[in-house]
Amino acid sequence: MVDSFKVAEGLYCVIVDPNAGINLSNALILANTGGHASNAVTIGPPNSSCDYRRDAITVVTLRDNIPANAGFELAVL
User: Fold this and answer.
1) What angle do CA 19, 24, 29 make, to 5 degrees?
2) 34 within 8 A of 76, measured Cβ to Cβ
3) Alpha-carbon torsion 59, 64, 69, 70, what sign?
4) Contact 43, 58 (CB under 8 A)
5) Residue pair 24/57 in contact by the 8 Å Cβ criterion
6) Which end of the chain is more exposed for a tag (fewer CB within 10 A), N or C?
7) For residue 15, what are the β-bridge partners?
8) Which pTM value belongs to this model?
């Protein structure tokens, strides 16, 4: 990962280094908040949240199924 930024409450873009040789369309993307009452969802395909960037992963962090700011760990395999 080379950069990340918050788009809105509980909504983040994580930019993957293009030199890493990772094809996001075929990658397994996992995210974890580590909290008991919160979770994270990832969106791999380009979307409006990250300006349709092909090198971006969208992460949504939730608390009680409502978007909420939270730290997270991300793995791209």
Assistant:
1) 115
2) no
3) negative
4) yes
5) yes
6) C
7) 3, 56
8) 0.89
- What beta strand segments (E) does the chain contain? 3-8, 11-15, 29-32, 38-43, 56-63, 66-67, 73-76
45-68 per-position pLDDT tens digit? 889 999 999 999 999 999 988 999
Tokens, residue 66: 């409502």
Non-local CB neighbours of 51 within 8 Å, separated by 6+ positions: none
Contact 56, 14 (CB under 8 A): yes
Read off the amino acid at residue 50. Answer: C
Residue 11 bridge partners (DSSP): 8, 60
10 vs 65: CA distance, rounded Å:
11
Share of the chain above pLDDT 90, in %: 69
